[in-house]
Amino acid sequence: MPPERSPVSFICVHAGAGYHHPRTHTALLTLVSEACLNGMHNLLSGTTSCSAATTATNHLESSPLTNAGPGSNLTIQGTVECDASVMCGRTGAFGGVGAVSGIRNPICGAVAVMRGDMQGPGLCGLVPPVLLVGEGAKTFCAAQGVEIVQMRSMITDESQKRWERHMRYLREAEQQERERPKKRQREEHREKISELPEQSFPDTHLNDTVGCVTQDPTGNITSTVSSGGISLKHPGRVGEAAIYGAGTWSECTPTASIGCSVSGTGEQIIKTLFARECAKRCLKSDDVAESLRTVVREFLDIEVIKGKERNVGVIIYRREVIADESVGDDVDGKKYIREVWWAHTTKSFCVAWMSSADKKPHARMSTLAPGHVMVIEGRPI
Question: What is the DSSP string of 261-319?
Fold first, then answer.
């Protein structure tokens, strides 16, 4: 009998689904590769999938290239409010923070919330929260030792300039609206309401929610997602990155396990609970590509989403126990196949992945071909 192989560790990350100008590609590919390396270093050092996912997500949040943590899109009042969540596949534990200010790395706040969910009811049967928002989230995180910073330190020169630019666009649009005859306004509204995109700013493509999926040597899978939200959002708005089943999902079963992290327009993703739906469809699928294609097509066609422009991207790690002796690898006496998948409807989606057998990460700027509505790609691990 051949010697049993060492348990496999794995990490995949994304830097958001949206439009990434070619001049940013090199920097973004470097960023996601670094995040993979940081997370894999943790995994090889014996830490848990949650710890590795937190480390990798911290690295993505801390970069001004992404819409998460410092440098996030600003609200219409010029403030930073972030969303993040984390989910453990083995226990089903979840933690999220929404519309939270002053937390440099929001994923750390989400992890603090998830710890309470893992512990279960406390004194007098008090049920710990799985989602906290606003000042309540900030107060809770501070009590748990999460780093709290001044709001100003979360605003970069670029995010401030972007806010000023978008406010100018908004004021110009409001002025044009006021100057049009009221009757014509009503007619145009009826004609165009179904064609309006989610956002109409000329340079607004920063939907760059970041996320990560990791597997540690024990086989547990953790997924994360973190976002600064859409530009000029209303204060208090919570996006998919904080919502259970919308922005992230992890699930471990005896025969198959999966983790996914989602990016895109939050309101659309929340209405479809995209992460949960995608993971459930792909978990035990005989054809993951077709299952992914079906989920994305339903997202594009569903009537509860208004407007024609629909933005989503997802990265998936999937592991399955198989009986076929000709494929897969042996770990703990079982035969496994492992694969990473990504899909998106946006112009581009930056992803990277790495297993403990790899010498360096694989990084990819996936792009949507002209005339196509989605990209579906995958690789065996």
Answer: EEEE-HHHHHHHTHHHHHHHHHHT-S-HHHHHHHHHHHHHH-TTS-SS---EEEEEEEE
Q: Where are the domains of the chain?
A: 10-152+203-380
Return the CATH class of domain 10-152+203-380.
alpha beta
Taking only the tens of pLDDT, the chain with its 381 residues reads: 233 344 789 999 999 999 999 999 999 999 999 999 999 999 999 999 999 999 999 999 999 999 999 999 999 999 999 999 999 999 999 999 999 999 999 999 999 999 999 999 999 999 999 999 999 999 999 999 999 999 999 999 999 999 999 999 999 998 888 887 765 655 555 444 333 334 445 454 555 699 999 999 999 999 999 999 999 999 999 999 999 999 999 999 999 999 999 999 999 999 999 999 999 999 989 999 999 999 999 999 998 887 778 999 999 999 999 876 655 555 566 788 999 999 999 999 999 999 999 999 999 999 999 999 999 999 999
To the query of whether residue 209 is one of the catalytic residues in this protein, the response is yes
Selected catalytic residue, list 209, 222, 248, 265: 209
Long-range CB pairs of 276-279, under 8 A, 24+ apart, other chains included:
276/245, 276/246, 276/249, 277/245, 278/249, 278/314, 278/316, 279/249, 279/250, 279/251, 279/316
